[in-house]
Amino acid sequence: AQSVAQPEDQVNVAEGNPLTVKCTYSVSGNPYLFWYVQYPNRGLQFLLKYITGDNLVKGSYGFEAEFNKSQTSFHLKKPSALVSDSALYFCAVTLNNAGNMLTFGGGTRLMVKP
Amino acid sequence: EAQVTQNPRYLITVTGKKLTVTCSQNMNHEYMSWYRQDPGLGLRQIYYSMNVEVTDKGDVPEGYKVSRKEKRNFPLILESPSPNQTSLYFCASSFRTSGRGNEQFFGPGTRLTVL
Questions:
Q1: B31: contact with A, CB 8 A cutoff
Q2: Using CB atoms within 10 A of its CB, is residue B78 exposed (0-12), middle (13-18) or buried (19+)?
Q3: Closest residue in chain B to residue A32, using alpha carbons only
Q4: Burial of A19 (C-beta count, 10 Å sphere; 0-12/13-18/19+)
Q5: A40 with A19: CB under 8 angstroms?
């Protein structure tokens, strides 16, 4: 069975500072990893994905994530946070190489203060 | 505009009254799925469909039904809703092409309250 853990319910950061949202996963095989963002009263939007290759993945809105196989982690990062980045972030994993049948983490609320 | 639409967006109903939440996508995606979102639990998959007439259970299928008679539509049916089905529901779709890790496109959500 596959699972995802997002250990922080909420992350607070000041605007302009770097941010990290943590994600660890558990699968018995090579994972496909995703980050999605949910703004208030909206559906989830795709941010970035890791399929294979370079461990540092760049995505939308200046976000990036680093795949670390030995630590089974896929932390989301951004060098300089914006107030508009405040949202709910979900990490997801699948073993399905089409990207289907995702298992999501519980979500982390990011609050960026001016 | 490429999108996934859901209707209704908000629904308050009573225990036992059958309801259907519709989902439609215009991107010619083979794969469609229903999730429910509950605080602290993230999104949990209810049912999914790999293509027309092909559906399968996700992690939390009890109390739900689905059908996939057309490629673009994937309705979620609650035959006898109960209060524990009060939740935020999302429909999603994607391509099935292998090896590409196709991202899923989500609808805007349906907030269901069962009294």
A1: yes
A2: buried
A3: B101
A4: buried
A5: no
pLDDT in tens, A7-51: 999 999 999 999 999 999 998 888 899 999 999 888 899 999 998
User: What is the spatial distance between Cα B35 and Cα B42, in angstroms, rounded to a whole number?
Assistant: 10
Whether omega before B8 lies within 30 degrees of 0, making that bond cis, reads: yes
d(CA B72, CA B4): 9
Q: Which of B43, B58, B103 lies closest to A49 in CB terms?
A: B103
Cβ atoms of residues B69 and B78 within 8 Å: no
The C-alpha atoms of residue B25 and residue A89 are separated, in whole angstroms, by 24
User: For B36-73, how does the pLDDT look when each residue is reduced to its tens digit (9 = 90+)?
Assistant: 999 888 899 999 999 999 999 999 999 999 999 999 99
List of chain A residues whose C-beta atoms are within 8 Å of the C-beta of residue B31: 98, 100
Report d(CA B13, CA A112) in Å as an integer. Answer: 37
Decide: A109 and A19 in contact? Cβ < 8 Å.
no
Looking at the complex, report in whole angstroms how far the Cα of residue A69 sits from the nearest Cα belonging to chain B: 18
Residue A67: how many other CB atoms lie within 10 Å: 20
Strand partners, A45: A37
| Rounded CA Rg of chain B | 14
Q: Which residues of B touch A9 (CB under 8 A)?
A: 40
Contacts of B10 in chain A (CB under 8 A): none
What confidence score (pLDDT) does residue A99 get?
67
CA distance A61 to B43: 23
